[in-house]
Amino acid sequence: MSSHPESRGRLQVITWSAVVVTALALALIASYVYTRDPYWSLRWTVDLKVYLASGQTVRDGGSLYDLVVMSPLYGPMPYLYPPLTAMLFFVPLSFLPIGTASLVWNTVSLVALGAVVWLSLGIAGVRNPRNRAVLTVAGLILASFLLPVRVQLIAGQINMFLLLLVLLDFRPNPGRWRGVGIGIAAGLKVTPLIFIAYLVVTRQWKAARTAVLAFAGTVVLDFIVAPADSAEYWGGLVLHSSRAGGVFDTPNQSLAGAMARVLEGGAFSQWWLVVLGVVGLYGLAVAAYAFRRGSDFLGFCAAAITGLLVSPVSWEHHWVYVIPLLVWLAVRAHRQRSTAIAVVTALLAVVFTVRVFMLVGIQESPPEPMDLAAWQQVVAAMFPVTGLVLLLLGPLWIRRQFPDRSTSIRASSQEFLPESTAVR
């Protein structure tokens, strides 16, 4: 394609118009399908209703953390995020009726997913504008089938925006402001703090400082716009993970959730924290190893998986962080004509698409901790088991793919090469 700025600009307009139209169509399809499904209709907009109530509470001058929305399915559901999140997202959304708000929210979430796919393709080395445009729309459609995305749309969750903010800091040549996306994401929901830890362990001091300052800026804004709520949230409420729901519930795909189901109880013991601490340190070590071998992106992936594993609660929709890895692996399989990488990518796609525990009759939210056989425990913890396997085997694969830092830099630098040498 011509490199003329006018042509490039026209293609960008066409690309993002196609993304918006596709996102709207997918949001409408999701609404039609899931509101008619006996199982998922009970869960439709379950989190969005809390978000809208938080926006209304801010407008009414009430306390965000006294807010409790009663769900027929899940019981009392409190607001969990910092005040700024409600201000930025949910106050404007709360002016809309629930049906319209759901359609708008899911459409914008899917546009953000399109942006995630577009960024991931760029990181993977796809430089031809037409190919990248077509693959972005195709990737958006395919990614919408992934379980984390489906659950995000059903519940009306926020995680796609957080992923997009973080991924902006891992795109090629992010510039002097690298770290701002991570810091803002952490200020909207604290779980992206794991990426600040990644910047620290990889000694990316400037980006780490920028991320910390951006995060601190969001906290300052919290206290400016909602001082009482901010004092309550940052004064200790942020550490009360039990407010997010039952740790042993099957959709909790964190390591803590898996341990709770094995031990048939949701109470944290001190040795649990030791296990989570060891996994956290190991996962960050894997991320640092990937970075030293020249792949900052694989470092991001390892840090994301680590954060999902060690968080007390990682619901299925939190695992949207695997999407960039799936895109990157698919492009690499094509580039290297590698059957092995293609098979692994397909297997990962299946793991993150099929809700296996439902197929074998394992309950989602049992009235008491579950007594499961060993094979059922594995099925009930497919995401954390897969995450642990990736962290354990990943360094071996990285060592083979990137024998040393100079070789890995040459291999990964295709994402910065001219179109003629990048994926077309």
Automatic annotation (TrEMBL):
The organism of origin for this protein: Saccharothrix hoggarensis
Report how it sits in the membrane.
Answer: Multi-pass membrane protein
* Lineage of origin: Bacteria, Bacillati, Actinomycetota, Actinomycetes, Pseudonocardiales
Q: What keywords appear on the UniProt entry?
A: Cell membrane, Membrane, Transferase, Transmembrane, Transmembrane helix
**Keyword Endoplasmic reticulum belongs to the record:** no
Task: List the Pfam families.
Answer: GT87
Does the record bear Endoplasmic reticulum in its keywords?
A: no
Protein name according to UniProt: Glycosyltransferase 87 family protein
On the tree of life, the source organism's domain of life is: Bacteria
Which parts of the chain span the membrane according to its record? Answer: 13-34, 104-126, 138-168, 180-201, 208-228, 271-290, 297-313, 319-334, 341-362, 374-398
Give the UniProt subcellular location, in the record's own words.
Cell membrane
- Principal cellular location given in the protein's record: membrane
